[in-house]
Each structure stands twice: as C-alpha cells, then as structure tokens.
Amino acid sequence: MAEFSRTRTLTAEPAAVWALLADFGDLAGWAAGVDHCCLLNHVEARPPLGLSRRVQMGRDTVVETITDYRPARTLAYAIAGLPPRLSVSNRWDVLPRGESRINSGTTVTLTTSVRTTARPLGRLLERIAARLVARRSQTLLDSLAKATERVSS
C-alpha cells in the first residue's frame, strides 16, 4: 500500500471545518474542480457508514463511500470508479491547533491510500497512482481553507 498525506493549517475553528466535511453531499459547494456532487443513498445510522456520493469532475466520475466517521475528528471514504485493480481511499483528520480554544485554528490532514492487485509491478503502480490521486489533495485543502475563511469571516 502507498500513502501520501498533505497537511494544512487553517485559521477557522475545528467546528467550521468539520461542518463542511460532514456535509458529505455538498462537496461541489466548496471544492474547486468539482462540477457536481449528490448523495446516492440515505443512511439513518450514526455514524453514517455506507453513505455514498457521486462526484463529477469534468468527464471523470467517482463514487465515494464513507468507511470511517468520528464526529469532529475523522472522515474516511473509499473511492470507486478509478482504473481496475486499484483500491483508493481518502482520510481527513481534523485537529484543533494549539492549547487555547480561543482562535486557535485547525490542522487538517488529507491522506490518500492506494492498493493494487496488479503484480509484479504492484508497489510501483501503487506509488504512481497514489501520487496522481494525491495531487488533488492540495487543491481540496486549499478549497477547504478558502471556504472556511468565508464562513468564519
């Protein structure tokens, strides 16, 4: 498995950051490059494991399904619709920055993980695919920062 992480420090408080991430069906409302996003199912359970969204980015479409959800802390989802033999997931970790609860800000880490069943070049393919998918991570983090600054202003 290959993993790539990107971290960004935001001025917004963790609750504002979490509010955007937890609104799973509104990715297009704040993420640059996302043309359309909609929920594919409804999950009553809390945490909402299994909740899925369809994400349209230009001509590319993926389906993301929540696999881990710890309120105000972690959101992880599997990404389907990429080349065969690739298993890809993203995990957002949201942490308060600093000791003070007053205007302390937030540290957000987005980790992309890739596994492949392709052999014998599996590990090389994982690293290449993870780098390609993780390129989008910086754009997502920048978009999150911009959106939370709008919300907290």
From TrEMBL:
Concerning Pfam families, the annotation shows: Polyketide_cyc2
Matching entries from CDD domains are given as: PYR_PYL_RCAR_like
Q: From which residue to which does the signal peptide run?
A: none
What InterPro entries does the entry give? Polyketide_cyclase/dehydratase (IPR019587), START-like_dom_sf (IPR023393)
Any stretches that span the bilayer, and where are they? none
What is the protein's given name? Answer: MxaD family protein
